[in-house]
Design a protein that fits this description.
Keywords: DNA-binding, Transcription, Transcription regulation. The chain is α/β, with parallel strands linked by helices. It folds into three domains: 7-88, Orthogonal Bundle (Arc Repressor Mutant, subunit A); 95-156 and 257-281, D-Maltodextrin-Binding Protein, domain 2 (3-Layer(aba) Sandwich), CATH 3.40.190.10; 164-253, Periplasmic binding protein-like II (D-Maltodextrin-Binding Protein, domain 2). Helices cover 44% and strands 22% of the residues. Strand 1 (52-54) and strand 2 (59-61) form a beta hairpin.
């Protein structure tokens, strides 16, 4: 009879693969690096074959590890759902969450991953639109919750203040061009307003080389050296560099992030996600 797979060992295995190393996985599961290493040895002994390729800079799964990873994630998900059905039976349902493109790409994934692990019976349906459109969607009842960048005239509680920075390609010096080439989010976006206000205050001539709601499109234009842009610090990809005063650029006003809720959305699932987001987004 085959030996049952230990849930804790599978959890450690998944954490190591996702983190890329024993040291980075350790704090995610609340164990020491040596304990993580010992658990991986135990799992490999249990299945009777190596599961990881232990490189100098990173740990990656081999063919057997890749196969086990699929089943491990499935088993852990089923285990979480079974536990939630007994301990949190009232926390069930679907929540429609609106979020701007840039926050969805970098700020939100780890938050939603933790929420899914703790509240396995709640499904989150993500709607990506600019903050101005999300405010309208909340008012129209199309979504339950929205993470938005606060506009100057909005009376909403600020749960997070995020630095707003200039970014550029590390291989180009677009900020030296005159007029300054700038890539902007679409009209009505809080980030766009802050960029234009900062340039107007210092009377810096500029030209808009790209305007869209697409974060990926904006990043591509900047990475190609065709423009610079303003991004939330949490949304800056590794391919871009942060620039600022030493490059002769004006300071950008900090972004204020708040959470809006549809007044008619009163389910326990909505309340659960709202509370989780408020706690998770606070620095």
């Amino acid at each position: 009879m085959p030996t049952p797979l230990d849930r804790d060992l599978l959890k450690t295995f998944v954490a190591v693969v996702e983190a890329g190393s024993f040291s980075h996985a350790a704090p995610k599961i609340g164990r020491s690096q040596s304990a993580v290493s010992m658990q991986m040895q135990r799992l490999e002994q249990t299945v009777g074959k190596p599961l990881l390729i232990r490189g100098v800079k990173a740990v990656v799964p081999n063919a057997a590890g890749t196969e086990l990873l699929v089943h491990a994630r499935r088993l852990l998900k089923l285990s979480d759902e079974a536990w939630a059905s007994i301990t949190q039976p009232e926390e069930i349902g679907c929540v429609r969450l609106g979020v701007p493109d840039d926050y969805a790409a970098y700020l939100l994934p780890p938050v939603l991953a933790r929420f899914a692990a703790e509240h396995a019976l709640v499904t989150v349906e993500l709607v990506c639109e600019p903050s101005s459109a999300l405010v309208e969607a909340i008012g129209a009842g199309r979504i339950d919750l929205a993470i938005v960048t606060r506009l100057p005239d909005q009376a909403i509680e600020v749960v997070r203040r995020e630095p707003f920075v200039w970014v550029a390609s590390p291989s180009h010096v677009a900020w030296q061009d005159d007029p300054l080439p700038v890539a902007l989010f679409e009209a009505g976006c809080a980030a766009r307003m802050r960029v234009l206000n900062a340039l107007d205050v210092e009377r810096r001539p500029y030209r808009c080389t790209y305007s869209s709601a697409s974060l990926l499109g904006l990043i591509a234009v900047v990475q190609a050296g065709l423009a610079i842009a303003g991004l939330a610090l949490c949304s800056v990809p590794p391919a871009l560099q942060v620039i600022g005063r030493k490059e002769g650029l004006p300071e950008l006003e900090t972004l204020e992030i708040g959470i809006l809720r549809n007044a008619n959305s009163r389910t326990s699932a909505v309340e659960c996600l709202e509370g989780f987001l408020r706690a998770a987004l606070r620095p």
